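In the design runs reported in the main text, the only information available to the sequence generator was the tokenized backbone. The following block is the verbatim input for one such run; it is reproduced so that readers can re-run the procedure and compare outputs position by position.
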């Protein structure tokens, strides 16, 4: 199991119909990636996912049933997208993820 931590910056954005909103929404995400129809060794896929998470600067822990990440929601969702892109680039014809998001005031 690997654990890494990095600081993520806070930004604001203007959402149509909602005014200016704080983008920094701390959360925990538990996600599992399922590559479909590939012959790439699973260990190579996990290594690629870990490399993406390191490059994104995400606090994470890879476990047997999935990966748990902590940080700002937008950054974590970007990291999941980047994991999908990395696996597709490795030749996986399809990638599916199950994602559970937990937001709680005072969390992080």
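Verbatim output:
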């Amino acid at each position: 199991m690997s654990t890494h931590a990095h600081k993520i910056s806070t930004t604001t954005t203007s959402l149509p119909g909602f005014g200016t909103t704080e983008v920094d929404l701390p959360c925990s995400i538990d996600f599992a990636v399922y590559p479909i129809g590939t012959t790439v060794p699973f260990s190579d896929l996990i290594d690629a996912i870990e490399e993406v998470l390191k490059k994104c600067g995400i606090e994470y822990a890879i476990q047997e049933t999935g990966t748990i990440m902590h940080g700002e929601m937008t950054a974590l969702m970007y990291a999941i997208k980047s994991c999908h892109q990395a696996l597709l680039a490795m030749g996986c014809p399809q990638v599916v993820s199950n994602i559970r998001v937990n937001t709680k005031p005072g969390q992080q």
